[in-house]
Amino acid sequence: MKLILDEHFSDKIAAAIRRARPKIKISTIHQRELDGLLDAPLLEILDEEKTILITRDVRTIPGAANARIAIGLTHGGIIFVPRSIRQTDDRELLRRLLRKIDETQKEDWTSRTDWL
Predict the structure, then answer these.
(1) Using CA atoms, how far apart are residues 8 and 14, in angstroms rounded to an integer?
(2) Which sign, positive or negative, has the C-alpha torsion 2, 21, 10, 79?
(3) Tens place of pLDDT for every residue, the chain, 116 residues?
(4) Taking the mean position of all CA atoms in its chain, how far away is CA 25?
(5) Which in 25, 52, 87, 116 has the greatest CB count within 10 A?
(6) Would you give the DSSP letter of residue 39?
(7) Cβ neighbours of residue 52 under 8 Å, at least 6 residues apart?
(8) CA 27, 115, 79: angle at the middle one, nearest 5?
(9) Kind and range of the H or E run holding 35
């Protein structure tokens, strides 16, 4: 399972997941130097890598993902973080991410979307 945290998450979350689940490959948009990349090219890169995007962006990412599906393309998978998890609540975010990883790490995430 390969994951990438969108721009609005700190590198601390990725580091905490690496410590808790060393077999999970996780990075951030910042670490990969993909900051500012538009949704369509980002989803294309992540699809090629079979990497799941973790994001709070429910405004533009769903449209970009659906546009790919509509023309017969796939994406690497998307996990949406609900507003009920405050931006500053790293502990709750980490708890839910670890649970999602544990429950789904052996599953195929191609073109799948889910919520924490």
Answers:
(1) 12
(2) positive
(3) 999 999 989 899 999 999 999 999 999 999 999 999 999 999 999 999 999 999 999 999 999 999 999 999 999 999 999 999 999 999 999 999 999 999 999 999 999 999 99
(4) 12
(5) 52
(6) H
(7) 1, 2, 3, 4, 46, 76, 77, 78, 79, 109
(8) 25
(9) none
DSSP label at residue 9: S
Euclidean distance between CA atoms 55 and 8, whole angstroms: 8
Question: How long, in residues, is the chain?
Answer: 116
With 0.90 as the threshold, say if the pTM is over it.
yes
- DSSP letter, residue 92: H
How far apart, in Å, are the Cα atoms of 64 and each of 14, 61, 71, 82, 104? 24, 5, 11, 18, 23
Contacts with 112 (C-beta within 8 Å, 6 or more apart), sequence order: 77, 78
Q: Which ranges of 1-116 does DSSP label H, i.e. alpha helix?
A: 11-20, 39-49, 61-70, 90-104
Q: In what order do the strands lie in the sheet with 51-55?
A: 25-28, 2-5, 51-55, 78-80, 113-115
Site of tokens 């948009």: 29
